[in-house]
């Protein structure tokens, strides 16, 4: 059984048909990359999983831990253990790093208990664990998040997701706009959290960087999967890379 399974998903924005018969799986414990050009449907796929609206999934199913979560609202998807770190790296700019992390815990607890149990037990990573994963955040814990560099904000956004109860982390273009050196720092952080047991679905336009840390990769084009294989197979498949990824 796969941790996540999309089966023949059709998703729409209004009447615009964006995802067409899209099927893919994410296996427990792996880093899976979803690659493709601008506008190919990567973000729409993540939104179809996370319950963010729009889009609307009209056909097909999304299953997580063998339960049907198609069309389930975002808070409930999050309570089941899926966290989305969106492209725009939502952090609270006027709060410090420590305050941002604390707030994630409070929000995480709320969604963990949403419609489930009434206990306020915190199931995500502790602040200490997060600081161990991201030493840079500990150094900057009293600094306002808005004054962090792009890479540090990305780490804070990922750290906030970790403070929630996360089995599957959806990362939308975490490398966007970051210098190569900083990309390496974010890569290392993603690697670490994966080694600690979080499964990762990584969406990227930077195919080379994503393939480096992924176990498997999918390529999406015009809303459908056009390649599915190991990262190694994609690295060797020049035709697919040139045709759909422009590299
Ligand atoms: P990018 O890297 O540019 O974010 P992407 O692969 O993530 O690319 P999506 O954001 O999933 O692409 O967009 C897929 C298609 O859906 C595009 O043609 C886009 O214009 C369209 N689209 C995205 N959001 C909306 C929306 N809210 N309403 C209507 N169409 C949308």
Automatic annotation (TrEMBL):
CDD domains: ABC_TM1139_LivF_branched. SUPFAM superfamilies: P-loop containing nucleoside triphosphate hydrolases. Keywords: Amino-acid transport, ATP-binding, Nucleotide-binding, Transport. PROSITE patterns: ABC_TRANSPORTER_1 (PS00211), ABC_TRANSPORTER_2 (PS50893). GO terms for biological process: amino acid transport. It comes from the Archaea. Gene3D superfamilies: P-loop containing nucleotide triphosphate hydrolases (3.40.50.300). Residues 4-247 form the ABC transporter domain. The keyword RNA-binding does not apply. GO terms for molecular function: ATP binding. InterPro entries: AAA+_ATPase, ABC_transporter-like_ATP-bd, ABC_transporter-like_CS, BCAA_Transport_ATP-bd_LivF, P-loop_NTPase. Belongs to the ABC transporter superfamily. This is ABC transporter ATP-binding protein. It comes from Halobium salinum.
């Amino acid at each position: 059984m796969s941790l996540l399974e999309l089966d023949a998903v059709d998703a729409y924005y209004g009447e615009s048909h964006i995802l067409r018969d899209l099927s893919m799986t994410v296996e427990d414990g792996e880093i899976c990359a979803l690659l493709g050009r601008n506008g190919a449907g990567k973000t729409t796929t993540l939104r179809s999983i996370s319950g963010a609206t729009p889009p609307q999934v009209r056909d097909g199913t999304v299953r997580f831990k063998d339960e049907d979560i198609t069309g389930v609202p975002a808070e409930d998807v999050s309570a089941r253990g899926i966290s989305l770190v969106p492209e725009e790296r939502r952090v609270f700019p006027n709060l410090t790093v420590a305050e941002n992390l604390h707030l994630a815990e409070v929000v995480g607890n709320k969604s963990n208990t949403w419609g489930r149990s009434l206990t306020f037990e915190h199931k995500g990573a502790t602040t200490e664990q997060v600081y161990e994963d991201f030493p840079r955040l500990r150094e900057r814990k009293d600094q306002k998040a808005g004054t962090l560099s792009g890479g540090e904000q990305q780490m804070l956004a990922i750290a906030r997701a970790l403070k929630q109860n996360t089995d599957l982390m959806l990362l939308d273009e975490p490398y966007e706009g970051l210098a190569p050196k900083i990309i390496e720092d974010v890569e290392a952080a993603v690697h670490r959290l994966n080694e600690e047991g979080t499964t990762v679905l990584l969406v990227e336009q930077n195919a080379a960087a994503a393939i480096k840390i992924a176990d498997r990769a999918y390529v999406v084009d015009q809303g459908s999967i056009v390649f599915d294989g190991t990262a190694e197979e994609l690295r060797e498949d020049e035709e697919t890379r040139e045709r759909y990824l422009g590299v």
